[in-house]
Amino acid sequence: MKHLSYVTTFLFLLTFGINACAQNAKPSPAESVSGKAGNATVTITYGSPSVKGRKVWGDLVPYGKVWRTGANDATTIEFSSDVKIEGQALAKGKYALFTIPEETGWTIIFNKNSKQWGAYSYKQDEDVLRVKVKSQKSATFNEALKFEVANDMVHISWENLMVMFTVK
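Now predict its structure.
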């Protein structure tokens, strides 16, 4: 009887543990990337969604609307010192990074409220800086959204598209 009690307890804990892990698994895992741009260290933290056979641009991510530029929490970007984004001054600090994708270009938005879920509580009056950049077809297909910091540039790549902005 004691043996049956141990087996029952073990099976309960095993089942509970598997269910708990499955519920915590995120389809868009948290990612973080850091790099140097000018004299600043740039750190970007984001949820990395995958294409999964979906049409991304203009569908999953609509044109002309503010996007959290990732999944789950709003993407954040942090600068260790003052920088210039596309030639415009931005003070060191941590910002929510939003974008407005369009077919030929994007608006990159640095918002002072870095603790947001998605873009649901986004407020334009909390924007610190907005810059416009061109988008381009990427050389390779990217199943998962990824950011890179290299050569004084931030690269955003997903599906068949790439957007870049300068950081100096």
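The beta strands are 30-37, 40-47, 71-79, 83-85, 88-90, 93-101, 105-111, 127-150, 153-166.
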